[in-house]
From TrEMBL:
Annotated organism of origin: Penicillium arizonense
Keyword Transmembrane helix belongs to the record: no
Keywords: ANK repeat
PANTHER family in the cross-refs: LOW QUALITY PROTEIN: ALDEHYDE OXIDASE GLOX-LIKE (PTHR32208:SF21), SECRETED PROTEIN-RELATED (PTHR32208)
ANK repeat start-end pairs: 524-556
Signal peptide: none
Galactose oxidase-like Early set domain ranges (all copies): 439-511
PROSITE patterns: ANK_REP_REGION, ANK_REPEAT
Pfam families associated with the record: Ank (PF00023), GO-like_E_set (PF09118)
Protein name per its UniProtKB record: Galactose oxidase-like Early set domain-containing protein
Length: 608
């Protein structure tokens, strides 16, 4: 049965969900802030709503998980390069007396500047630096903040936050001042303003005029650029007076240069029908044989829209779905097979009638033997089973390390208010057909590696392995997963071996950096610096020292001249001695990327 009948009470309206590295098979942190209910809004409401779901046991771990003491309802989030979940902004106030059309703050929701980091190992939230208050167009230092912000992890592990509704004190409708969270200093800095942004607000003249730049679908590309899949206005300056034409447009998709804050190349006509936040958007699998050429797909409407970003003159192309109906507020998860799994959604979000939608599976048309995409745009199929619960506005979905897809949350008829009356507080699992197959068992694998380096994975029946991939942990809200990413790896197997040997991607543009707690020690007191020095990995030693690793003189014991010079340059104290004279091979519990190693056997492919 594709849908697991064992349904779990989530206890809260899980508007936000993220897979975090804790427990035997990972945990999912669920949070909802005020749960779309004004009575629970801060400062006096019951908006502290966090729960943790254990993947291994399929149960909540506790009902007493601490929560942020700011309202994180409708915040943005993304994993930093060192694997922490960063929460950006949220709801500062529900404003019943908000201004009407023609004023930048016609929305009832104001954003705030407070941000949090989730410590998965201790199951607690830690407040970090606030977003910056400066309004580049005047207004002093009381502005800023974000509600419905976009977020994207950059190649070096920093997080970029884009757009979102600003605080009431800010004179702009949307915060168009990009801000970058430094993973090393835990501080925000302002980036160059988006080109020609003017005052950068857009008065609402009917749906979906203010929608395009909330939860902007933005992707870090393998060539270092960003891609705005969400449509951008052609001329920001024309949106500063409030005297807009009948239609808010034209719009375009664009490549974006982070350093200059400028759009790059010829604007790409927008993907028709995908100008808001109600439908998913995914970066399709990146394959090494194609030098990780990027393709992006919007989905959820009767026709999906796909684009090949390396094509000459890239354009969005329609891909007809199997059901040929809109699935508003659906969510999409990348599967280990390279397919896209579309779950949830309804045809009419304000009158959903408890409508339950089957999962749809998209095959992107990859020749896995050659490691390349075939000509053609792929095909959709419909699963035969139905979930028990409808998933409308404020639902989420995530791929789990077990290969199943978790679904949670949702407001019935998109209605705000008491979530016990208007929400779905249940967790369901979709189990793709491959779940009944024989899963490969990994008996040993390195806990970290370096870009471009090969590594071995000891696995049951290695001769049957047909693909090796790295899949990034997801974090999802409002029909969008900010973090999921499928990176295929080159690998080989020699007859008689008990392992496969894979090669890591060449850089952080492809994988997105995931650093370790670089001075973390194992039970024997060994750090990553000791391991790298003992084994002569000069590049790793250099990187660790640049990242501020604590110097230990034992790191020079193997006598490598280059490593000794690196340590001397960083001021190693050669008089200190350690208790243990050995520096054995050991890799600490960290990764270059927050990933799940997925090995796909022939048994996994029966659904293809």
């Amino acid at each position: 049965m594709p849908w697991n009948p064992n349904i779990v009470d989530s206890q809260i309206l899980a508007i936000h969900a993220a897979l975090v590295p804790s427990g035997e098979n990972g945990e999912v942190v669920l949070f909802g802030g005020d749960e779309h209910w004004k009575d629970q809004q801060e400062p006096n409401g019951d908006f502290r709503k966090t729960r943790v779901y254990d993947v291994q046991t399929h149960q909540l771990v506790s009902s007493s998980i601490p929560s942020p003491d700011s309202d994180v309802f409708c915040c943005g989030h993304a994993f930093t390069g060192d694997g922490r979940l960063l929460i950006i902004g949220g709801t500062s106030v529900w404003e019943p007396d908000h201004p009407g059309p023609g004023h930048p703050h016609e929305l009832a929701f104001g954003g705030h500047r407070r941000c949090w980091l989730y410590n998965a190992h201790e199951r607690k939230w830690v407040e970090t630096a606030q977003l910056l208050p400066e309004n580049p167009h005047g207004g002093g230092t009381s502005g800023g903040g974000r509600w419905y912000p976009g977020a994207v992890t950059l190649a070096n592990g920093d997080v970029l936050s884009l757009f979102g509704h600003a605080r009431r004190e800010d004179t702009r409708h949307r915060n168009a001042n990009p801000e970058r969270f430094d993973v090393n200093t835990n501080k925000w800095s302002q980036m160059p303003l988006l080109a020609n942004d003017g005052n950068n607000y857009l008065p609402n003249q009917g749906e979906p005029k203010v929608r395009p730049l909330f939860f902007a679908r933005t992707f870090q590309l393998p060539d270092g650029q960003l891609f705005f899949a969400t449509a951008m206005p052609v001329d920001w300056a024309s949106h500063t007076t409030g005297n807009l034409p009948a239609t808010d447009g034209p719009h375009f998709s664009s490549f974006f240069d982070l350093a200059s804050g400028a759009y790059i190349g010829t604007p790409i006509p927008e993907a028709a029908g995908y100008d808001g936040w109600s439908f998913p958007c995914v970066l399709l699998p990146l394959l090494p044989e194609e030098n990780y050429s990027p393709r992006v797909m919007h989905c959820g409407r009767a026709s999906a829209m796909r684009i090949d970003l390396n094509a000459t003159g890239p354009v969005w192309q329609p891909v007809e779905t199997a059901q040929k109906v809109d699935r508003v507020n659906s969510c999409a998860a990348l599967l280990p097979t390279g397919q896209v799994c579309l779950v949830g959604g309804v045809m009419d979000e304000e009158h959903d009638g408890g409508q339950r939608m089957p999962a749809e599976l998209y095959d992107p048309n990859i020749d896995w033997a050659a490691g390349r995409y075939r000509p053609g745009l792929g095909t959709w199929t419909v699963d035969t089973g139905l979930p028990v619960h409808s998933r409308n506005y404020h639902s989420a979905a995530l791929l789990l390390p077990t290969g199943t897809v978790l679904t949670c949350g949702g407001n019935i008829n998109r209605q705000m208010g008491d979530p016990n009356l208007h929400g779905v507080k249940r967790i369901e699992l979709f189990e793709p057909n491959y779940a009944v197959g024989t899963r490969p068992i990994i008996s040993s694998a390195p806990k970290s590696t370096a870009y471009g380096q090969s590594f071995e994975v000891t696995v049951s029946n290695p001769a049957s392995i047909t693909r090796v991939a790295l899949i990034r942990n997801g974090s999802c809200t409002h029909a969008y997963d900010f973090d999921q990413r499928y990176v295929g790896l080159k690998f080989d197997y020699h007859s008689g071996d008990s392992h496969v040997r894979a090669t890591a991607p060449p850089n952080g543009n492809v994988l997105l950096e995931k650093g370790a707690e670089i001075d973390l020690k194992d039970n024997y007191g060994w750090t990553s610096l000791l391991w790298a020095a003992e084994n002569g990995h000069k590049a790793i030693v250099k990187l660790l020292l640049e990242k501020g690793a604590e110097i230990d003189p034992k790191s020079a014991e193997n006598g490598n001249e280059v490593i000794v010079k690196l340590l001397l340059k960083k001021g190693a104290d050669w008089e200190s001695k350690g208790k243990d004279r050995r520096t054995p091979l050991f890799v600490i519990n960290g990764h270059t990327q927050m990933i799940e190693l997925v090995l796909v056997t022939d048994a996994y492919q029966r659904q293809l």
